[in-house]
Amino acid sequence: MSKPVIHYFPIRGRAEVLKLAIVAGGGDFDTVDVNYQEQKTNRSLYPFGQCPRLVDGDIDLVQSNSIARYLARKYSLQGKTEQEQCVVDMLMEGVESLRVKYVNLEEAAKEVYWKTYFDKSTTEGRNGGAHMQYLVNFLTANGGQFCVGDALTIADLCLWEITDLHLRIFEEQLKEVYPELIAFHEHIAGLPGIKEYLASPKRLAAPNANSLG
Ligand SMILES: N[C@@H](CCC(=O)N[C@@H](CS)C(=O)NCC(=O)O)C(=O)O
């Protein structure tokens, strides 16, 4: 099996779910610090002028969720049935809705951010379709260990990673309001491949380029 190479900045960022998928699937990866000049000017390697970019044998692609879906197929993390795969896909989009809110979070806006996207009383409010409770609903309905079916999927890794990011910022609130999410986070972090990766030097220190990172 070919070894994927991830071209990205030296942060976790949008590469982190990709790395988690590879290690959860029993694989390994290399990383290359992206050449920003090339990223901005080479439309065939970087069609959208952005990274991450994944090179894996003949496969060369960008857009993190497209890469995540490719890796999910490669490492059998896409769900077992058509029904499961549809829900996995839907949850990935649900996490993405929250991520696009998160990437612009600033210190001064933390309180409003929590109220809008995490406070259980605001699920019926205007939030751009992004609320942690919406995601947790799937997790609890499925028993709490995995979001979909009875095995790890890429949807779990997306939810794990967005939870991990928010734990840095809202640890106490998350523990109090979403204990099932904390239990899920611990469960996924202990899975083979993931556990070793998280303890290894390959797990980069910098979460992202966000000022809260
Ligand atoms: N929709 C894209 C977004 C990619 C993105 O925002 N990439 C950022 C880094 S996380 C980037 O390349 N920023 C530099 C730039 O846009 O010039 C994806 O999911 O891959």
TrEMBL record:
Question: Keywords of this protein's UniProt record, alphabetized?
Answer: Transferase
Read off the Gene3D superfamilies from this record.
1.20.1050.130
Q: What is its EC number?
A: 2.5.1.18
Which InterPro entries does its entry note? Glutathione-S-Trfase_C-like, Glutathione-S-Trfase_C_sf, Glutathione_S-Trfase, Glutathione_S-Trfase_N, GST_C, GST_superfamily, Thioredoxin-like_sf
Q: Does the keyword Zinc-finger apply?
A: no
- Which GO molecular function terms does the record list? glutathione transferase activity
Entry keyword Mitochondrion: no
Q: What does the record give as the reaction this protein catalyses?
A: RX + glutathione = an S-substituted glutathione + a halide anion + H(+)
Query: Residues in domain GST N-terminal?
Result: 2-79
Q: Which Pfam families match?
A: GST_C_3, GST_N
Family the UniProt entry places it in: Belongs to the GST superfamily. Mu family.
- Please give the PANTHER family that the UniProt record associates with this protein: GLUTATHIONE S-TRANSFERASE (PTHR11571), GLUTATHIONE TRANSFERASE (PTHR11571:SF222)
Q: Its biological function?
A: Conjugation of reduced glutathione to a wide number of exogenous and endogenous hydrophobic electrophiles.
Q: How is this protein named in the record?
A: glutathione transferase
- Organism annotation: Gonium pectorale
